[in-house]
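hey can u check if this looks right to u? its 324 residues, i copy pasted from the old doc so theres a chance i mangled smth
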Amino acid sequence: SAHPYENPTPITDYVNILALLLIAAAFPFAFGALIKDRSQGWAIFIAMMLLFIIGLWFVIWSELHGNPLLTKLGIHNGVNMEGKEVRFGPLASAFFANSATATSAGAASSSYDSLMPLTGIVLIFNMAIGEVIFGGVGSGFIGMMFYVMLTMFLIGLMIGRSPEVYGKKLEAYEMIMIVSALFLPCALQLILSAIAVSISAGTSSLGNPTFHGLSEVIYAYASGVGNNGSAFAGLKADTPFYNLTIAFAMLAGYLITIIPALAVAGSITQKNSSPLATRFPTNRPLFILVLVGIIFIIGALTFFPALVLGPVVEHLYILSGKTF
């Protein structure tokens, strides 16, 4: 999305970003209209926006601070311009990257492989948690609804009420489906990444067989499960091994989300609604903060060990004045 014929100026770049976000960000409002309570849609939208803004701030901060190795050489205060169009610069490039991975658009206005390691963490996180920010293409909004149900289940346990969401009780069957839909895609990403870095068919494609190489592999399978199957440029993914495993990740990632979603929907529609007075309010700031916190906690607990071995170590390596 950075070709001069397609995207010639910063203005067209921001129009592209708006196009990425517009329909995806409308999903919560459509949901609120369907259940005849627009405040519920606003609550989910605000939770998504908080996640998006936190990621955007982190990405912009990382790119503007740039590479300390370049700072030592006196190159433009170390701002990371590698892999970016000069007419966009690091700010617009970071904004586009965060927007594209948050909505599973599959587009790019810069080379993601050239972004700073901490930026790579945000891009991987956006996809790995299930594309829940603004409801990515395919099943992203379904993923957010799973997190909403999990949040209400945990809140119900903490306050001593029967867990329910929007007046429908959450019982063992629903929670089994919800947990399966949330954790099986994460497990699939990590298992495929572990296999790829353990056998020669996977490691032979690494252009950077170090910490950054692990980041490339994790990104490829996170994109396969939650996005469009793209990869960092440093990973030679056009091989039988990566073609087959990423294709499997794309198919399995969709099915292990949509099948539990249909099961939960079918089960909940058969239940009677509870009285409004007994429900925990899901359109208040407390619920929004708990929802965002649970998404961060699950993402951190699931992917933190893998990310530490990849982009975090790479970042610390750069801070120490070393490269690879």
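The radius of gyration is 20 Å.
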